[in-house]
Write a structure and sequence with these properties.
Strand order of the largest sheet: 1-2
Number of strands: 2
Strand content: under 5%
Distance between the termini: 61 Å
CATH topology: Formate dehydrogenase/DMSO reductase fold
Radius of gyration: 21 Å
Number of helices: 16
Length: about 350
Amino acid sequence: MNEVIHHSNDWLPVIFIGLMGLAVLAYAILDGYDLGVGILLPMGEQDEAQRDTMIASIGPFWDANETWLVLAIGLLLIAFPAAHSLILMQLYIPVAIMLVGLIMRGVAFDFRAKAAVDHKLAWDRTFKAGSLITTLTQGYMLGQYVMGFDQSVPSLLFCAISALGVTAAYSYIGSAWLVLKTEQDLQVRAVRWTRVTGRATLVGVIAVCAINPLVNPGVFDRWFTFPLVMFVLLIPALCFLGFVCNDLLLARMPKAADRHSAIPFFIVVAIFTLCFSGLGFSFFPEIVPGEMTIWEAASARESLRFILVGAVIVIPVILLYTVFSYRVFHGKATDLHYH
């Protein structure tokens, strides 16, 4: 009996890393598209109407999307405190810069509606700058995490590639969101943005996939060990197929009666999920690459059991609220109104 209890307790860290992974993936998809919309804001004075529509497309969702980031960091803190301390210690400065970017976005989103007309463009530029700062720092932090927080020149170059790649990926899902949510000239523009950012994202994914196994021998062994290689290489193969199919579909869009406008966005969601699965496969069960596993970083088993009760209640509520909000505000974005 004691062995059974001990075995079930050992699965608690696996459950929590799964919940944390779900939160991170949900954040990357949901907040990713609204960050991407912010990055893509056109800054010409003649583009004000399109900027308003783009902001309107994310208006009901963007603040709630960040709930998933709070959930992910909260789970890291309470379930894996040792990993939380190490990661935040290494990434203190980029996290602070990211928070500055998020604050800029929040302030600009509200002030663009309340400021004098002459200042509206300045707040739109602030929103765009905040989005760029946020995505670049998140990409840099991902690169640092993959490189084991190494500060050498090659590692920093990889982090720069990662920063640009994540920014391109967020722009990719953001432009696909605009294909889904907009009409007419803006939708035509969004189709063009999606094709360009999709190709840039593909280059970034290929670069990271090529470099990561070279700098992490354990990752190389995990991916290229026979016969497992026969199955796990389906992940990059399906990912590449998603990029190609999306590009071919977008070449024929927009279509009459707005047909297939949702497909590019959901293909990008699938690509994000595949990339995240590949990253998880590369490092699991390590929560800090080369430093500690999820079992070494986990809180006491009694604490995990207690926290799990709260997580089982909270996470379904967040999921239901998310589904409800997207159901209520489905359809095309309309003119933006503030009340």
